[in-house]
Amino acid sequence: MNWSFERFILVGIETVNRRAEISPEVSADKLEAYTASLGATPGGADNFRAFIADDVKPWVEANFRTASHDAVMGESLAGLFIVETLLTQPDLFDDWISVSPSLWYDDMKLARQAATMMQPGDERVYVALANEGYRHEEGVERFVDALKASAPEGWKWSFVPLGDSETHGTIYHTAALDAFRMFYGTADREYRPGGDLLGREAEPRTAEEQALLDTECTAQNTIALTPEAARSGRERLFYRCLRLDLGPRPRDSNWVPGGPEAED
């Protein structure tokens, strides 16, 4: 990861039949149709949440040194599971990364009800969308509208549409990298290059530059800028703490990654 993220423990949870295990329940009159469409009987999401809460998280905490700050990430039907968990059991995680969630599910029920289901807290929510179209896109847009209109005061959220460059089958890794940069990116420094790279003798480090290098990076002394701006003003940035604005841009968002609130 090139030392560009905070340290984290990555836990993968494999499903046997994801369409059954992580899908929400549907009403009785829709069950037969959804079972035929999915090739599995839906409705296992509550049990899967209980498995995470009662088995997975306690095992991780018992075997690893954790920081009591937990995130969850998933795409498509797993993205739907993440949104449902955010709305129904928000104490299970702190950060939520939902990639092209299947919010078309059950006549967009979760997207329609999201505004009335959001609970107070300090949740951080990242939503990305591929070139889905149809009710898949409509459901996500409805959820984003709910965030814009009704997200509780403590929530920080961002929506990144990637439909111009990613499909349902390609979006996951792009969105995952973007979300990790947004939530867990750390400050970096621009170092003075050596003589071979410069093509001339390198100047010695000044006392001011050494003082900058000896100072720990914090949200208060970190400069936010784009890679383009860093390249054009490189020499004046040597040894300073930089938070580079990398990757795609959010379309809608209510927070600035790396701002003073990041250290709260």
Automatic annotation (TrEMBL):
Alphabetical list of Gene3D superfamilies matching this protein: alpha/beta hydrolase
Record has Hydrolase as a keyword: yes
Gene Ontology molecular function: any one: hydrolase activity, acting on ester bonds
Domain of life: Bacteria
Keyword terms, alphabetized: Hydrolase
Pfam family, one: Esterase
Signal sequence residues: none
Similarity-based family: Belongs to the esterase D family.
Protein name in the entry: Alpha/beta hydrolase
